[in-house]
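Interim report to the steering committee. The following record documents the input for Shikimate dehydrogenase (289 residues).
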Amino acid sequence: MTRQRDTLRAGLIGYGIQRSLTPAMHVQEGRAHGLDYSYELLDLNERERSADDLESLVVEAEERGFCGLNITYPCKQKILPLLTDITDDARKLGAVNTVVLRDGRRIGHNTDWWGFSQGLRRQLPEADLSSVVQIGAGGAGAATAFAALEMGAKALAIFDIDEMKSAELASLMAGLFPGARVEPVRDLSAGIEKATGLVHATPMGMDKHPGMPLPAELLSPSLWVAEIVYFPLETALLQAARRCGCRVANGGGMAVFQAVGAFSLFTGIEPNANRMLDHFQALTQGEPA
């Protein structure tokens, strides 16, 4: 960790991240602990770069003395070959959202899965996990699938437009959780018919990726719906789910608690999670929660 006179610098690498609230959460919590803490957006879209340029951005961060980086779409899996070390849970998931830069090392962590589970528990404490359908099998999808199974999901069906990805993630999770039934699903409508809950784990619904990940008519009031997208906080999916009578969990919980974990890793200081949650809610005041 690069730290001089309580000065820290961190950043976020991803595509279309200008509305991210991660910088504000980190900086505000840093100030509460007396740190001079800056947090920058390294936006692939703004820089007219692609995920293929990821290594150059990591090198730039190292040269500028960053203590760490958060990694988001589409780089959570592409970052893996660039790391010197990786934690066990991140290795199992095959996805990293937090990289600690320390003493020439790049240490990969995954705080997404814990962040998602904390957010779901707080927003839908009585969610029926007996049969969950998940849309998305990328880096974020690995974290949410792991979280759902870690929380006790008995059955998890994974859908992705890339059938190979859904099959690979299902196989990975089945190996990690042999007591659960985990399988890829090709027919999303058939999978949802038997489900108690729906997890959405793709970028669909973000500012740069507007739209719905499924037809609204597939939703039913008996289904709970959990979202990972949080800018905007009220995605088209959540709007449709509310109209249908579904109980919903927005992406804010995952956003806050992954930041709680990352802040601790970057600074070595345990943050106040409730304070960070209050700050997030203040930042999103006016948007439906």
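Residues 115 and 257 are 4 Å apart (CA to CA). The committee is asked to note this result when reviewing the revised timeline.
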